[in-house]
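Structure ticket #2291
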Amino acid sequence: MEGSEELESSLLTKPWASVCFGESAFLAKVCFRDTGYILLISDLSSIWYESADAEAVGQRSKELNKRLTVHVSSFLHHLCDLMSPLLAGQSDSTTSFSCHRTAGGLSLHMKSTLSGLPFYWKFHCCPAPVEMVSRHLVRPLIRMSLALQYQVRELTSLLLQKDAEIEDYRENGATLSRDRLRTEPFQEEIFQQNFMTESLPQICGVAEGQAFASALQQLYAAVTQQEAKQSRKRQHSEDAEGPAPAAETTGQPHPPPPSQEDETASSSEGTMPASSPAQKLRLPVAKAKPKKAKGLFS
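Resolution: structure written out below.
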């Protein structure tokens, strides 16, 4: 049975999506399975989550939808169908969402229909732990930043090669048929300065809820898939190695098994009454005397 840890691992490769509830913008990601669901939502100031198994979903559905009698797995599939258009940025007139901030977390309300009857659902989200925030947001964003930096270096190198190729054509007498296609040689330092002064202010002015465009969603999914793959490799290598034996762990060899004489001596000592060392020295030691062999006619 898939537990909460497997659900969170499945959630890891789900990209963040920009969603709006009223005038509030959020980033959200969710994973549904027959065994439950896990939701992660953030306004970039706080991050909340809810993880619910099939039993909790069944109990809440009875409280919120008393007229509906649906199997829990079908209920979860319906929840997934209602959330998918929201995460894809598509509007659905038959479904409405609203969120309410509370002192202890965030409550997300959903209203729709199921089998012609009103359908209600509430996600009760609490603050996400630091490890979850790091795993689903901080570490992937750092890896995405490194990947984009590498991509910029590759593109810069390609531009410089193209400029060298164009200059070679020009030196050998090649001319442009359309003068409007002429470009200046690429200068990296000037490009960086223009980017910082002109492009960066526009990027920072974009609404926070629009942080994950489709291209960044693909990059996020690719980065988290690599992390999940590396995590599985580490887990398999640890399982293959197995726990170290006790003797190797402590650095002491196993004691040799006791011989039969040792066992006899220890059992004899266990049955004899205890005596002091001085008493043991005074005990007489009986020596066996050799017997003379008697002949038949002696």
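Closing remark: Strands lie at 17-21, 24-33, 36-42, 47-53, 96-102, 105-114, 117-127.
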